[in-house]
Amino acid sequence: MKESLPQVKTFLLTGVSFTIIFIACIGIPIVLASPFAPMSPQGPDFSSSPVPKLILDIGAAAFALMLPIPIVPIVFSCIVGVPMLKAIGVPILESMAFLGVWLKTMWQGNAVLLALVLGATIAFDMGGPENKAAFFFGSVMDPGNRLVPRFVQSPWLEPTPSPSR
Fold first, then answer.
1. Where are the domains of the chain?
2. Cα separation of 52 and 72, whole Å?
3. What is the DSSP letter of 119?
C-alpha cells in the first residue's frame, strides 16, 4: 500500500494540473463581472448592469458544467486502470523479476554478452518497463566495471558536433 501512494499522488496531481485550467477559465469571468456592477450592502447588484450580469451568468453556467469534469476521469481511470493493473501489471512484474535474476547471474560471466543483452532489451522496449529495468541495472553495475554501463547508456548518447572553424 505504501509503495503505491507516490503513484496515486502523481495521478492526482496530474488531474489537478489539467483541472486548474478549467477552474481559472471559469473563475475569471465571475471575478471580472463583480467590479463592474454597482455595489449594494449585500454585494454587487447586477439588476441594473446587463453586461456584467451576462459575464457572471456565463461564468456561473461554465462552473455548473465543470462540476462533472473531475468526476469523469476518476471513474474511467478506475474502470480502465484496475483491470489493466491486475491483468497486465502482474505479467510485467514477473518478467521484470525474472530479468533481474537472470542479469544478476549473467553479471558474474561475460560482461560483453551482458552488455549486448541489456542493449537488446533497451532497444526492444524503448521507454517501457523492461527498458527501465535494464537501464538501471546496467547503470548501477559494479563500479569497477565501466564497460556494461557504457553499453547500456549508449542509446541516449548524442554525437557532439565538431566546432566550426
1. 5-85, 88-154
2. 31
3. H
CA distance linking residue 80 with residue 21, whole number of Å: 25
Place of cell 549508449: 154
Return the closest-CA partner of residue 59 out of 88, 98, 22, 11: 22
The secondary structure of residue 1, as a DSSP letter, is: -
> What's the pLDDT tens digit per position in 114-132?
777 777 877 777 777 777 7
Ranges of beta strands (E only) in the chain are: 39-40, 43-44
Distance CA 20, CA 73 (A): 14
Q: What are phi and psi of 153, to 5 degrees?
A: -85, -10
Q: What is the band of 29 on the pLDDT scale with cuts at 50, 70, 90?
A: confident
Res 84: pLDDT: 82
